[in-house]
Design brief:
By secondary structure, this protein is of the alpha+beta class. It has a single domain, classed as NADH Oxidase, CATH 3.40.109. About 40% of the residues lie in helices and about 15% in strands. The longest helix is centred in the middle third of the chain and has 19 residues. It is globular. About 30% of the residues are buried. The site of flavin mononucleotide (FMN) has 9 residues, from strand 3.
Length: about 180
């Protein structure tokens, strides 16, 4: 599969088989994050790879914000908490000079590396940003200096996540691009 095929195949998966994901595959996902680019190569990402059913249950019950039902996440055999190690001087400088908070960009890139690598392996994923960061940090035992940004569920989908023939709900090219 070319990288564009993988990008086209990826879709948020909200229905998982409970089967565990082999350790080697999880290690490859971690490697996909580790190799990501980052501003000043600061690599602010931290990961908690949660396979323990009790902890996953707590993430869903105590770590998600109310209002959106995401009980399906409890079935996903792996929750990868993507966190940011804060307090790097250059990050603060970048945010104040350029008005861009680079570590958040870095985390988005790294997380999507993980998601695309998972897609290539036939795994389903879903980014979950509807979380209570401090509650999630408590559950995975992170100190205050690491702030969870998202939970990414990982596991084998119960069915093909997306029919490749169907049109995606996306903005038109003209709406997002200015060619010059
Ligand atoms: C940063 C981020 C946060 C998201 N948070 C949630 C979430 O809390 N719950 C959820 O079900 N989906 C969440 N999603 C998935 C989006 O709803 C989904 O990517 C979008 O609707 C496009 O659909 P697709 O991923 O199937 O292409 C999130 C996606 C991103 C990138």
């Amino acid at each position: 599969m070319s990288i564009l095929d993988i990008i086209a195949k990826r879709s948020s998966c909200r229905s998982y088989k409970p089967d565990p994901v082999p350790r080697e595959q999880l290690e490859s996902l971690v490697e996909a994050v580790r190799l990501a680019p980052s501003a000043c190569n600061r690599q602010p990402w931290r990961l908690a790879v949660v396979q323990d059913a009790g902890l996953r249950g707590r993430i869903v019950q105590e770590g998600f914000l109310p209002g959106i039902k995401m009980l399906w996440a409890q079935v996903a055999p792996v929750h990868i908490v993507l966190g940011m190690q804060r307090s790097f001087g250059t990050h603060r400088l970048g945010a104040s000079l350029a008005g861009v908070d680079y570590p958040w960009l870095d985390l988005g890139i790294a997380g999507e590396h993980l998601v695309l690598a998972a897609t290539e392996m036939g795994l389903g994923t879903c980014w979950i940003g509807w979380i209570k960061p401090r509650a999630v940090a408590r559950i995975v035992g992170w100190p205050r200096s690491i702030k969870p940004a998202a939970v990414i569920t990982v596991g084998y989908p119960t069915e093909p996540v997306r029919d490749p023939g169907t049109e995606r709900k996306r903005k038109a090219v003209e709406e997002i691009v200015k060619w010059m």
